[in-house]
Amino acid sequence: MIKVIAIDDEPLALMQLQKMIEVTPYFTLVAACSSAFEAMQVMEETEVDALFVDINMPDLSGLDFVRSMTNQPIVVFTTAYSQYAIDGYKVNAVDYLLKPFGQPEFQGAAAKVKARYELIQSSKGEQAKSADPTPTDMIDGRIEGDILFVKVDYRIVRISISRIKYIESQSEYLKLYMTDGPSLMVLMSIKRMAEILPSNLFVRIHRSYIVNMSHVVEIARLRVRMDANTILPVGDSYKEEFLEFVNNRLIGK
Description:
- The chain is of the alpha/beta class.
- The protein has two domains: 2-128, Rossmann fold (3-Layer(aba) Sandwich); 138-247, CATH 2.40.50.1020.
- Helices cover 30% and strands 32% of the residues.
- It has seven helices and 17 strands.
- The strands form five sheets. A five-stranded parallel beta sheet has the order 2-1-3-4-5. A five-stranded antiparallel beta sheet has the order 12-11-10-14-13. A three-stranded antiparallel beta sheet has the order 15-16-17, with no helix packed on it.
- The chain is elongated.
- Residues 130-136 have low confidence and may be disordered.
């Protein structure tokens, strides 16, 4: 069962949302909360898989609540204001329900939650199965050569690691920005990705970013320019390792 919290400051809307969750056979309602702060307290004590959360709430909005999370559950936003849709998808929400919505619209969003949940569980199972054997293209947990296989949706895609420009963490997913072609979304933690990528090319510069140093254009004031439109920050926790990498390759000191 998928553990769900409903969050809405409007009592009637919260009651409607609660009933829709309760009649969905693969959902179990953990709590119906009237504020983000109430939901925080529940989540401190109970593991939650998904949130149906209103965007416009006093004190702390649904968007800010989701942005504040380190380990973000699956999110569906509900709101009466369509202009927030783009903001919702920027934080990796699986769907956006525009009020007033009925059971058919809710079930469409619920199906997306179920699909994302099953994908996460499948990936966790595969990672557990492959934890013991050492792949032939890896030594000491790191990739040897230039080939990496990644699971994208329901496909396994072969990529050249030299084509990865930089990597951005987005909740449970990583977004791989490539030198050519579209970016790829991969279900993996940034910590695990940093462990397996070759350290002579890739450096973690921030809790949300790993960069391929061969594609860095410029470094200035602890900002890394990847191209004309992309400048990434260097986090304090990663500054020492990053500067050591650069200084070891610096000429004209």
